[in-house]
Amino acid sequence: MSEQQQWTITATEEPPEWFIEAVKQHTPASSGLYAAQLLWQRGIKDRQQLTAFINYKAYQPASAFEFGQEMHLAIARLQQAYNTQEKIAIWGDFDADGITATSVLWDGLGQFFAQNTQLIYYIPNRLKESHGLNNQGIDNLAKQGCKLIVTCDTGSTNLEEIIYAKQLGIDVIVTDHHTLPTKRPPVAAIINPRYLPKEHQLFNLSGVAVAYKLVEAIYQSLPNVAKYPLEDLLDLVAVGLIADLVQLSGDCRYLAQMGIQRLQEDFKQPAAARRRPGVGRLLELCQKSGDRPTDISFGLGPRINAVSRIQGDASFCVELLTSRDVKRCNELAEVTELANARRKSLQKDVQAQVAQKLTQLDLSTTSVIVLEDAQWPAGVLGLVAGQVAQETGRPTILLSTEGAGEQGSRGAGEQRSRGAGEQRSRGAGEQESNSSPLPLRPSAPLLARGSARSVNSVDLYQLVKDQAHLLHRFGGHPFAAGLSLLVENIPLFTAAINQQLRQSLGSTTLMPTVQADLTVTVADLGKELFLELKLLEPCGMGNPVPKLLIQNCWFENAWHRNQQDWQGKKVQYIKAEFDIRDDSSRSAFPGLWWGHYKDELPIGRCDCIAELDYNTFKKRYEIRLIAVRPSANSALNASRSLTPFILDLRNQEHSALSTQHSLNPSYPLIEDCPTNWDDLRIWLRRCLAISRSTPGFDNQQQLAIAWSKPNHQPPNQIWLTLVGIAKYLSRTNQLVTRVQLLKKIGISDQTLLVGIKALKYFGFTVKRQDHYLQITWHPSDSAENLADAAVARFSAAVREEQFQQQYFAEVPLSTIVAIASYEN
């Protein structure tokens, strides 16, 4: 059963009348009250601030030379390269911010240096290298005759690599926005907004915005050279800014506002006339138009990020974003879309496996979730960890030992141990701890590599950093981190980081939290409110999308469907669509709930938190459901009405059970003891749905629960039975169905899957043939510790399943009613 969420409502201070009137001037079709409340509570409290926030034309951006001496040094070095025709390399990063930053420098500096001859770019391989500079890549650039490297979105703390480049006769200009080194590196220039005061309007720039400021400065310093206007780069800047989730204030907001407008204007052009046909094609593939910030955060950003997550090498994305060859861009866009489809599939698989592992955790005693698996692809772990953290309210660390045997030698991007003050602040990047690397054993697996995501303002980076003695590499910031460690250290690390967070929390209990900004009714929803709330766009860190609380509402006409990839080949995710109603209006309002089935919507009155959006594909206003729960009155009434319709026939003799059911054979009879609340909840929802749709009290659908107290074998005996059956099937070359196996062994599907994985360590191969399984055995000398660990995992799964069955055999009917009434 999922944990109960904590709902909070943002404290509101009523804005003064003059402020409401000022806001209303920008929303003449509505009262402006909701927007005024939000703007006031988010710190916009005078006319000048308000005008500059809403209308970017009234905003005064900062000069690129506000970076001071460092910008002057950078431009001087670039002018030297321009005058002496030196070869320059752009060193980028593989995420969306880094890719767009590389593209901005490629297009921008490309106005002054001939592309592919004087100007080249290099992006590390995500699956083989780390974030930042590395010596192998620098050697490669030196062989090509490069005399200057310009980094973007990376490089601030690569002290040793910068020194190495200098020894090879290569200067470095760093443009970055991550953690600063303890001392200035020996670079030609370092342009990083973190050197500025926190209140400076440039302080929150992302990597792509810093790169843009460098290009802006060279445009001003070498006028009349560039053929294309500087503003042509703004669409790329907007994509990187919004995809990187930086705080959209000051120049960040200004650049994003202008960039979104450029993006929309270009998309409206015929494909052959677009400045960026690759961006246009990506928008078409994800059925977006580029006029909404969510078109970037839910459309372009994830697709650009998917390439490195799946393929490692994302270099072609720069060509996709900058080329004007329509045919070539279409090809690259389709490759990108396929990578994103693959990313969704892998993410969905890992989510399902993580969900299964979570059922074996006692969250009441868990402060930091740490899970590992040998088969998880590292590229999607951060995404899944973020989702788990949001759903559970706990920091989550997911580790993979995939390819661990290949980690014995240092990859091109790996760096030696550096001091804590020199570590890069990256979301998924991994860096050395400030202790020397632990000795590596020659046998696989060696290292577990993973990603961590935080929630509830827990400083995850500090938690990880405090366990540096157990780690091989780590890096990150308070809400995201990357790390690697010896597999044998995982239990110690898990215990230590949990103990550390428990001590710091004291009596505070972690739980999923959802915050609402405004309370509205269904009658408020629609175009007027949408346009009013649109004044806050683009939204991001520090200015989130407004969350609307709708109370005492209900859902109608709910349905769901499986979303397929763009070629219609594979199901990627599901979504439920519905109409929402309340007593404020006779009209319903459409909405959707991503990643959920219609059966998960409560029946009867409820409260929900949602975002209001405009669907450019369907050309309609709709809500996007964030959270939902039955209202207090609804839960009470449901509890009273459910009791007569759940018939408790548990632990009865078979003959008595048959007699009972013969009196009323129409009601469903559940004879298999469930192992979790979801198993039972499905039946309850079906019966309730029939009951709600059937008029008259006497026609209500009944549900009989009729399982008996299980007679369990010890887990080790079940394991021996599974092995014996597998040997028999291999020896006789017989096929078996999954159902036959389950009935013979007496375990669930999920536990059987764990058992099949364990069998593989003993030389068994399990293949699917239509609806049958073929098991063959080729005894091998498997690693004893791996085989023992696999059997231990199977035994743990069996014990957990048996515990759950024992619970459901004895749980009082009143508890079942209470759970059913809350969830339904």
Description:
With about 800 residues, the chain is α/β, with parallel strands linked by helices. Helix 9 (about 235-245) packs across helix 10 (about 250-265) and helix 22 (about 715-730) crosses helix 25 (about 785-810). Mean pLDDT is about 85; it is low at about 405-440, about 635-645 and about 695-700.
Output the radius of gyration: 29 Å
Number of strands: 24
Helical content band: 40-55%
Mean pLDDT: 84
Q: Largest sheet, described in full?
A: 5 strands, parallel
Shape: globular
- Structural class designation: alpha/beta
Descriptors:
alpha/beta, 26 helices, 41% helix, five-stranded mixed β-sheet, 17% strand, globular
Could you outline the blueprint of secondary structure elements for this entry?
Elements: E1 6-9, H1 17-24, H2 33-41, H3 47-54, H4 69-84, E2 87-91, H5 96-109, E3 119-122, H6 135-143, E4 146-151, H7 159-167, E5 171-175, E6 189-191, H8 207-221, H9 234-243, H10 251-267, H11 277-285, H12 293-311, H13 316-322, H14 326-358, E7 369-373, H15 381-392, E8 396-400, E9 447-453, H16 460-465, E10 473-477, E11 480-486, H17 490-505, E12 513-516, E13 518-520, H18 527-533, E14 548-564, E15 571-581, E16 589-594, E17 606-615, E18 620-630, H19 632-642, E19 646-648, H20 654-663, E20 669-670, H21 677-693, E21 703-705, H22 715-732, E22 735-737, H23 738-745, H24 749-760, E23 764-769, E24 772-777, H25 784-810, H26 813-823
Parallel strand pairs: 1-12, 2-3, 2-4, 4-5, 5-6, 7-8, 13-14, 16-18, 19-21, 20-21
Antiparallel strand pairs: 8-9, 9-11, 10-11, 14-15, 14-17, 15-16, 17-18, 22-24, 23-24
